[in-house]
Amino acid sequence: MKEHRAKVVLATLLYRWAMSQQMIGIFLSALTFAGVFTLLLSPFLAGWGISYLVMLLLLLGGVATVFLSLGFVLDRVLKFWGAQALVGTTRNPFLISRLYEKELLTIVTQHIPVLKAVRMLLQTDSLNARAALLKELDASIARLEKTARDREWTVLPGEDVYPETKTRGRA
């Protein structure tokens, strides 16, 4: 158990390190770009009255504008992040078919008991609508019990979250 906990702590620390490194990398690359080009361009532009500080601020503003503009174009115009999320989820077999522990616990401790209680309440009346609802509840209960037993989701035709992708499972 201690070894497992140590692995979890180490994985968490590595994840945090990687995320921090990405954010700091963006910041440092912008500063490096602005600093290098300030040193290279300022002597040539000094004749026009542009100082090192003004050049640095102009380059930092330019870098920020380029980064934010590129992010806007990728997000709003090309809808890149949506496509990236689509590929990330449809290409990940564990995300679609496998059940996470939290989902399993929620199904077993909440959904199945509630559905069984609702079924028992509806069973007393024999109207056609209630009979159809009972049949639907029975199917839902059986499906959730199968999901909990197999520890795997069953996605029926027509329930696919991403209907525009007909190539599930292909790499």
Could you explain how this protein is built, in words?
This protein has 171 residues and is mainly alpha-helical. The protein folds into 2 domains: 2-78; 99-150. Helices cover 77% and strands 0% of the residues. It has helices at residues 2-45, 52-77, 80-90, 93-97, 101-122, 128-150. α1 crosses α2 and α5 runs antiparallel to α6 (128-150). The longest helix has 44 residues, at 2-45. The protein is elongated and about 95 Å long. It starts with a helix and ends in a 21-residue tail after the last helix.
Write a short abstract of this structure.
With 171 residues, this protein is mainly α. It is built from six helices and no strands. Helix 5 (101-122) runs antiparallel to helix 6.
What layout of secondary structure does this protein have?
Blueprint: H1 2-45, H2 52-77, H3 80-90, H4 93-97, H5 101-122, H6 128-150
Helix pairs in contact: 1-2, 5-6
Features:
171 residues; mainly alpha; 6 helices; 77% helix; elongated
Kindly provide the radius of gyration, computed on alpha-carbon positions and rounded to a whole number of angstroms. Answer: 28 Å
User: Termini, distance in Å?
Assistant: 36 Å
Q: What is the average per-residue confidence, as pLDDT, rounded to a whole number?
A: 78
Q: How many E strands?
A: 0
Overall geometry: elongated
Share in helix: over 70%
Strand content: under 5%
Q: How many DSSP helices?
A: 6
Poorly predicted residue ranges: 165-171
The total number of structural domains is 2
SSE order in H/E notation?
HHHHHH
The main sheet comes to:
none
